Amino acid sequence: MFDLVCTFFSQAIQVMLGLIYISLGTIVIVHFRRYYKLFTSITGYPFWSGIFFIFSGSLSVAAEKYPNKALVMSSVRMNITSAIMATIGIILYAMEIDINNKRDYSDSEGFFLQSAGTALAVLLLLLTMLELAITVSLAHLGMKAASSDMATTVSPSPVFKQDVSPTEGNPDPPANNNNA
């Protein structure tokens, strides 16, 4: 049951992180252009990484819902690609934070916008680290499933069916011998 919950939330988080990257990337470009060096936004990282993370999460959901070897391997390849994108993002955000922390503004507006831009970059750096952990773990689970004969081991089915009646195999409860 724990694997099911972790896998489902990992896939949902991948898609949500992709949407967050695209949204925050747009905010950073629109509002912080003047006082904050947009190293990652110039490269387009928030947009193309967001698209990769959304596609990777969606493919993982499809591989869980319709488990066949080709779809599972496609999901693994996409998760590996997303892990590479997350690694690139970690490097880019670390460089952006380093570059912008060396700048000094005397006016309060510049200082505020630089601080807010740095805070967003740190947030995106942490989310990129989370994305890296998720993509690596889902790629590992997918490889494990693809290496077995059945691709259905990517994650357990959300519906647990038992053909056993509730009383079958269960002993009767002990009799209450309370003679009070």
Automatic annotation (TrEMBL):
Chain coiled-coil ranges: none
GO cellular component: plasma membrane
TM region(s), chain numbering: 12-33, 45-63, 75-95, 115-141
Topological type in the membrane: Multi-pass membrane protein
Region (Disordered): 153-180
GO biological process, one term: cell surface receptor signaling pathway
Keyword Membrane annotated: yes
Protein family (similarity comment): Belongs to the MS4A family.
Protein name per UniProt: Membrane spanning 4-domains A3
Source organism (scientific name): Podarcis muralis (Wall lizard)
